[in-house]
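**Sequence, structure tokens**
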Amino acid sequence: MLESTVESSMVCPREIHFRATVKEKHITMTQIRLNAARLLASAVSVALLALAPTVHADTLQDISKQIKQGQHAQALEQVDKYLAGKPKDAQGRFLKGIVLTEMNKPNEAIAVFAKLTEDYPELPEPYNNLAVIYAQQKQYDKAKQALEMAIRTHPSYATAHENLGDIYARLASQAYDKALQIDSSNSSAQNKLALIRDLMSTASRPGKASKPGVQVADARPAEPVKLAEAPKPAPAPVAATPPVAAPPVAATAAPAPKPAPAKAAGDANDEIARAIDMWAAAWSRKDVKAYLAAYARDFKTPAGESRAVWDGERQKRITKPGAIQVSYENLRITVDGDSATAKFRQHYKSASLKTSSNKVLLMGKRDGKWQILQERVGS
């Protein structure tokens, strides 16, 4: 069960409350955190709104207070009214996801956070909160994939790294438990399972210091970051650097502007790897819209059928009942200007099929994004 916490509240017995911060260019949002004992939701800090435009900040601040006070129905009504006038606003949509999570409406919250990952893929927070909900539902593989996306988006995002460690602990517990079901005399598995369970239970014991894997965040409020009315997704999220002020220029003669340096091939490799990550993640979570968006308008269909026919066939296959898991390894990328070739080993698993095959994606840059132009199985 998720619980709201207020930054100024005391730590309740048998629980540890966390507050995470978002640095640099990312939206200052309160995170929903995992810990090894149970899942907790943080309340939205007033610091989130300190630098937002006054009118909007007042509205969002009111919603934040309602969430802290447990007035979830009123908060949802308020945030829906706010979003009716600003449907693209990331802060408002993120707040709605938190309210729905607090109201125990996980499927609706998943829809909100998943859409945020589509519209603002450079933000790690929605991926993190998706992972929390998936973990509550014991869908640990999906939680793991979401956290890996958060980390790829923002490699220094400590919250996601810690949460991923907690997910690994849960998966290890399941694996050791399964080993003991097969061989109850396996003393090595017994010892390891006991260690994992002790790790997961220690955080909830009052009066005990947290182990390194379960760290209580600093209680000081985060330094807020101003949010634009509709943040635009960046094709290759990187840690933001402070803008450098231009030196004063004499009024009589302005220096000629220097051409922007060409983008390094390494940057293109990162963008392509991230595009493939998002493609595989969308496929795994059966998000047909995001999956099809990975393919360019001029995508060459395998059998020469129309794009509409191919899209329809893919939708039928992806939306069949049952979970899908798609992963890959040994990614190799060759870039030639705005064209690239990506080769990797793909692993696919569903209720009725488990395969591994070599995959080749021919990719091109379209409207600033790397998209799939052709897809082949084999080397």
Notes: The chain has two domains: 32-202, 265-377. Residues 151 and 158 are 9 Å apart (CA to CA). The chain has eleven helices and six strands. Residues 32-202 form a domain with the Serine Threonine Protein Phosphatase 5, Tetratricopeptide repeat fold (CATH 1.25.40.10).
